[in-house]
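TL;DR need structure tokens for one chain.
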Amino acid sequence: MPNGLFEVPVVMLARSAVLTADLRPVVGVIAAVLAAILAGYASWHVTDRIVSRGNRTDRDGF
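>> reply
TL;DR here they are.
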């Protein structure tokens, strides 16, 4: 069997492992930014619900 058939997948795997190791910090930063955006949206949404519930109870006289 020719060695070339086995070398190609090994080389591709090695290159993808190096690329993954190089991109890991970038992926971490992107994940942190997305988590911050989602946390900000969630806190805004919860705050809006609390304020609207407070306004609704003021109008109803409870």
